[in-house]
Design brief:
The chain is built from 14 helices and 9 strands. The protein has helices at 2-11, 16-24, 28-46, 85-98, 115-128, 143-152, 166-172, 179-192, 209-222, 248-261, 271-276, 280-287, 299-302, 318-331, and strands spanning 49-52, 54-59, 102-107, 133-137, 156-158, 195-202, 226-231, 291-292, 335-337. Bound molecules: S-adenosylmethionine. Residues 68-69, 106, 108-109, 137-139, 159-160, 162, 201, 230, 232-233, 235, 272, 307-308 line the site of S-adenosylmethionine (SAM).
């Protein structure tokens, strides 16, 4: 099996059957082999640096009804909130002082935040913090909207493809959402010039080794700048409440394989990984990740942005959790840096 890892490193791509064999293999000594190579690849581009992104979860209103997500529109038990521009800028202010040079605006697909409001917000952020990158993660929009956001100064866009298999996509989303449109959005984003991120949940309901292999094939063809993967964690107020969650071990293996496939990738050790394992983020780094996204949202809204049950960091002040992160990363041999942390081209 090691020869497949070597082939991936040499050619940066594999055939579908090869991905299946690698993903299916249960030998944990293979993981060590993968992680060692992944760390060496990351070292070449990014050294031991951990890039931090200040995550601002600015609205939990959402017009979509994804079966897995705690902020889906059918969750009537959820108290909805929407931060104002000035509340968001306050978060940036705190974040900037702490050393964040990227802010990630993430939210549901909220009609209350029109394109004009997003454009205004991005312009304000770029005017106040010209040395910072702004990442948007606000779902599927028209190409013209993406162009307007880019024009306003947004640098990056995260839009997980969720799964590259049409049948699987159907099982995770209601009719009105299509994989075709999701992929079209990703292509538009990349074409416009965004540093673009796709990704998926590991262990989402109805996922198979086969669909995972298709995800890896999609990513090797699409060549994104960022990939966000984290374990699926059920949320008790969704149709998938009783489904099994994803595994830390498989998430780590896939992180390692992604790093070997695209060595200069911006690859976060996600909050979901940190939620399932107390040292999940450090483990993610050891598997090849190089980005962590601490929460800068005001504490009183964090418990309302629960995409899944038991999401971490709901109570810590930004400063406190950053201090903790710096310490744990230092102990693991990594350095949290004050930098935009852009994608490094080959
Ligand atoms: N609305 C935007 C979008 O669709 O891209 C951004 C917000 S959305 C909540 C961010 C990501 O959360 C999704 O792409 C999904 O992969 C992840 N997510 C949602 N529910 C989850 C769950 N139960 N477990 C793990 N991740 C989840």
């Amino acid at each position: 099996m090691r020869e497949l890892v070597d082939k991936l490193q040499a050619e940066r791509r594999l055939e579908k059957q090869e991905w299946i064999r690698l993903i299916r293999n249960e030998d944990s000594s293979l993981d060590e082999y993968i992680f060692e190579k992944a760390r060496a690849e990351r070292e070449f581009y990014y050294g031991n640096r951990v890039y931090i992104r200040g995550l601002i979860e600015f609205t939990n209103y959402c017009k979509n009804d994804c079966y897995y997500c705690g902020i889906r529109r059918s969750n009537k038990k959820l108290e909805r909130y929407r931060l104002t521009e000035s509340q968001i800028l306050d978060c940036c202010d705190i974040g900037y002082e702490l050393g964040f040079r990227t802010f990630v605006l993430q939210g549901g697909e909220d009609a209350g935040y029109t394109d004009e409001k997003i454009v205004h917000l991005v312009r304000s952020m770029k005017a106040l913090y010209p040395d910072c990158a702004v990442t948007l993660s606000i779902g599927e929009k028209k190409k013209e909207s993406y162009e307007a956001f880019f024009e306003a100064g947004a640098d990056r866009y995260l839009l997980r493809h969720e799964t590259a298999n049409t049948n699987h996509y159907r099982k995770l989303h209601p009719e009105e959402l299509t994989l075709e449109n999701r992929i079209q959005c990703l292509m538009n984003l990349k074409e416009i010039g965004f540093q673009t991120g796709c990704g998926f949940m590991v262990g989402s309901p109805y996922q198979t080794v086969d669909t995972l292999a298709e995800d890896m094939m999609f990513i090797q063809n699409f060549q994104p700048h960022m990939v966000g993967i984290g374990p699926f964690i059920p949320h008790h107020q969704t149709p998938f409440a009783d489904m099994e969650g994803g595994s830390v071990a498989l998430t780590l293996r896939l992180l390692g394989l992604l790093r070997i496939m695209i060595p200069n990738l911006l690859l976060p050790a996600t909050t979901a990984l940190g939620t399932l394992h107390p040292r999940g983020r450090e483990k993610g780094m050891a598997a090849g990740a190089n980005v962590v996204m601490p929460n800068l949202s005001p504490i009183d809204v964090r418990e309302k942005y629960l995409l899944y049950d038991n999401k971490i960091c709901t109570g810590d002040e930004a400063a406190e959790s950053l201090q903790h992160l710096k310490q744990t990363m230092k102990e693991a041999g990594y350095e949290v840096v004050t930098s935009r942390g852009d994608f490094i081209h080959k």
